[in-house]
Amino acid sequence: MQSIFTNYFENEIELPQQYEQTQCISFNDEILICGGFNNQKCYSYHTTKRQYKYICSYPENIELKGHCVVQLVHLQTSPNELHLLSFGGQGANINKATFSMEYKSVWENNEVKSDSNSNTWIKQDNVHTIGEPKDDLEGVRALIGGSKNNLLFMIYSRKNIKVIDLINWKTVLKCKVQLKDRTYLFCYTCFVHFTINNININRFILFCQDVGIEIQYDEECNKLSYKELQSGWNFNKIFFSYVCLYDHILLFGEMNAQLPIALSFSFAIVNGHDKKIHIIGGVNNDNKQIHWVADVVKIYGTSSLLGIAQSYEVDILQNELVRSKNGSPYPLIVKRRRIQSPNERFIKRFEKEKKDIEILEDKYKRSNDQSIPDVNTMHWYELWSCNGQFKASEAKLLDRLQDISQDMTTVLLQRTNLKVYFYILLLFVNESEIILKELNEIKIRKNSIQEQINVAFVSKEKLKKEIDVSILKYIDCMTEYNNLYNIQTDLSNEEELIQERMRLLDEICTYDENVFHEFEKLNNTLNSLLENHRKLETWVSEDIASFVRYNLNFTTTELQSCKNIIDEKKICAGQLFVNEIDNWKNILNLNERTQAIILSNSLKKIFAKYYRNKYIPKEFLCALSNLIMSDPVIALNGTTYDRLSITNNFRDITCYPSLMEDGKLILIPNHFLKNKIKEFFESTK
Questions:
Q1: What is the pTM of this model?
Q2: Which of 113, 163, 203, 673 could form a disulfide with 194 if both were Cys (CB 3.0 to 4.6 A apart)?
Q3: Spatial separation of the C-alpha atoms in residues 138 and 186, rounded to whole Å
Q4: pLDDT reading at 206 higher than 80
């Protein structure tokens, strides 16, 4: 249904330049105007001061033809600054450009440092550029969503929808919308959040020509679903502007909410502080620098806004009741009932005028004694209810004014009659003068009452405006409460997940500690065995069996069998060392040859540790292979290694990145140690 908004819009201060296809962002008391077609300049409009101030400009070589500017909510850390992202506006087969800005109010920071990156469009590199050269991003539209406000949902030509993660700058989803018997383009469309109680969720509504599409994104499964809405409109004019407010979508243009003059390529935005709709720029026949403004209260009406607030409050109460049943610790908000005063009867009108002037005088005296209630001391419901105290007082005053008018007519009639009997009533002239004086006093009192009525009317209008502002604030509070409570719920869920993970980690750590203690106990036993029996000749059958069990992980039965074989064959450690690997397998009745190899290598290590190291200096041995170095080199950590050993096995060192520079392993020849090793072996010949 078409709505006429012409009477609601008023002319605001004209734009400093003409804008079309512009993009605007609301920030506190400011509206940021971010460039447009053939216009790279950006301005800030202060809604309170009603002035424009220049911010910066896009580069001159950048084409802005239907670009898009969004607020990066996930980067917001301070209420006094704003992070913006600008992209699009270039057609197919044209290199794309993406810009970012950290905005700080130009109305507070008059002196901007030359080296500061604030309030300047910074061009992003190729990694952070949105769109490919083949993409047509003229008239692109985008919204911010996701549980962390880090997802960019953008729609552009050829029915494309793309979802980008703004944290790691990766495309998480890209698809085309396919509907039967539909041919249309996604450019210069109406793309808004599907809101519930004025809260954004991962649902969107798209109006494109004669079709409406509801889009829903499942962030957990990374899936996009859409369905066509019930048809009943035809947006042949695609160049309208729009806003989403209180779960309503307001469209401004020739086919929808009519504006004072025909206008296309304009931009509509709601300022968050004064709750006014601003129409910025656009193409019109007069080439005017258009800036219109409309009050939300006038468009919706006070009663409608109050109904919206009450519906939000009812939904909140229902959610709170559900949460309280589930054991939620958050307090319930009790909805207050408005107390209506009982009906008051109007006071009876004064008796009809009587011919006796003395009775009329008494009535005026009684009228003067009646007090007028103070408006400032009344409750608001007494002022606004149809049967309240203010309405009753107003009726009383109107009755009194009517009585005064009738009384004046009666007095004038009496005055005429007095003229007829002038000569007869000559003796009562003084009394007539008194009556005229009283009539003048009545007239003065009448004027005073009228002034009081005027004051009461002004107070009434002032109170009405204050109530309208309070209702808007109340709606904002309800919306903010919903947002904060949803965030609290999400944090509680994340806390439960983290606690469950911590519990699993504790179980794993406990298990690891038990395994480590068992291993440490076994290792201490072996070390004790090695320390007490460094000479292989002193090993008995239990020592040899323990050595075999340690290396081959024998069970108790296998260990006892091995000891029996050693006792039967009278095997000593010296025989094992001089025998070949195949002999090991035969002597100990091993199942596999690999077991014999493991035992042989382990025995050689023991020999190298307790025999060879007694005669060869330790500094001649490589820190990695524990063998004599043939080409000693010094690494960046100050340790000497054999060149061949560290070249092949340097990644086995825990901090091996510290041994490298620019990805290369740095080694310094140790000529002194090399000569020392050479002299040692020459002296032992």
A1: 0.52
A2: 203
A3: 10
A4: yes
